[in-house]
Amino acid sequence: MTGGAGRGWGRILGLVLVTAVFSVVPSVLLIFVPLALMLAALPPRRPGWVIAGLAGLYLVLSGPGTGLLVDFGRGWSLIVGGWFVVAAAFLGAAPFLKRGLVAMAGGVATVAAMLGFSNPAVLAGLDRAVRGRMEAGLGMVREISAVAGRPGLVEALERGSEVQALLYPAMLGVSTLAGLAVAWWLYRRLTVRASDGLSPLREFRFADGWVWVLIGGLALLLLPLDGAADRAGGNLLAFMAALYALRGAAVLLVVGGSPGLLGWLLAVLVGLLLYPLVMIAMFAVGLSDTWLDLRTRRARPERGA
Predict the structure, then answer these.
(1) Which residue in 14, 36, 221, 299 has the fewest CB atoms around it within 10 Å?
(2) Minimal CA–CA distance to 10: which of 265, 244, 192?
(3) Rounded to 5 degrees, what are φ and ψ at 17?
């Protein structure tokens, strides 16, 4: 972010929305647990901020809510928030996304070591909890569809829920990264009164080497391996596809210029109506930017061009 104190709120609201929509755990944990850890552990480490961070951490973690998804959300947000604090401390002036991806990688490795190898029953329980929550939501949709006489809607949502039940780790990854972004922005605003926590969307990019994560996910999905490898590959592919789609959106902003309020409303409408095609197109543009660096090939046009 490069503007004044009042700029950037739309971007933050969008990130909060992404955190809430994609998260399978309480989204408040993904924002306020990392924020509390940052306040308590990162500079300027003033007594007031340390106390506020520790108090906030206690309040968030001891808040209402029970069940496996809530407990897992508490542990996951603590692990990823801790890794982000470590990344922020050791990566110096690195941009947020680099720190966030390092924290995500560390969190996945930690959870895999703690649960995947030593207690896989917890992961099976998470699968059941996610499916149960989705089934509860589908029950409401079935009742509404029965009244409206739209059985095809239920069938489409059931197919979609099956995919979501398999890909919820990738969805959690997207929501966690968005939550970390909100927490980092709030931390910068609160402690040093800076509005530079996040760069503008048109500058969104990540190291080209991350394409190998995408290739690795595709390989796991295509090779004749067991079901766990297939699922891991699918989730890696889905998570990286989301990042590349966002990178594609950044490229289009540079190439096409900022669309203005009416343009944004039209873009949202088209995205909702043609969601799969729009995502595929943005993914293709973002992936091609890895090799072509499209933003350096086109001068930035004026606003509204």
Answers:
(1) 299
(2) 265
(3) -65, -45
